[in-house]
Amino acid sequence: MSMARTIREFERWRLEQDAKHKTLGFVPTMGYLHRGHLSLIQAAKAENDLVAVSIFVNPTQFGPGEDYERYPRDLQHDYEAAVAAGADVVFHPSAEEIYPSGASTMVEVTGKMTTKLCGASRPNHFRGVTTVVSILFNIIRPDRAYFGQKDAQQAVIIRKMVRDLHLPVQVTVCPIIRDEDGLALSSRNIFLTPQERAQARSLNRGLQKAMEYASSGVDGSRKVSILTKIIRAEIACQPLSAIDYVEILDAETLDELTEIAPDRDALAAVAVRFGSTRLIDSRILSAAPKGEPLLCTSI
Ligand code: AMP
Question: Measured between alpha carbons, how far is residue 34 from residues 4, 9, 17, 264, 268 in Å?
Fold first, then answer.
């Protein structure tokens, strides 16, 4: 197991592995690893000879006044957790290594896919994500890359970028890992006070209720307006919550829907603030009962 802090060090590691005939899986992260991240590393390990994990808090995906400075960091813990989960190398570059002085190229998926949901309140966020993922793909040159359904919109956008740019990497999206109380694991959960955390469980409860109603088959159960009301009602009654959005869109294209089609998945997505912490969560809704996928899905 190795740590590479520069592109040159990563290249050296690659040469040492005689990586030519070995497959390389890649898990990009911003660190402060939890079981959600580790599930991606384990999925990568199961399908590849070697696994690279990046830990890089990417400045270009944070807007002014967002939490770039205070984003939690714990490299020692991350390194050990990544090894235990099966990583062969951790790539932990500085911001200057990724964006050397004078770098001015951005990679952007244009259109409504990136301006709705989180894109509406975080205008340049996804441009920062697609830029850093492109740069990391070019440095790591993985065969497969692993992302979490936790960042559902990000996963859709990355898939689109990979298709549009004909990037030679297979993208796999893995299910959301939750705490026992249903709260989706997130590095930002440590910022929640005990009261906020207790109320944050309403995100999963609302999504779960909508999922059950959508697959119940009763009259109106596929109507997006009714399903969003169910989710909103569950969250809005928590006094510390401030809803950013509750939306149900086509799971593949993020197009608007009025009804969930019997043969297509819909994505119910929420973003809610508790104090200064913004949480996101989502569930796949389908007219036929299915629940959250247990296995990763690839393109
Ligand atoms: P982050 O460090 O937050 O940028 O996340 C790195 C990767 O881990 C992204 O692909 C996330 O979607 C994924 N991830 C974060 N939280 C979870 C979770 N609770 N379950 C599964 N994947 C997750």
Answer: 21, 26, 27, 31, 24
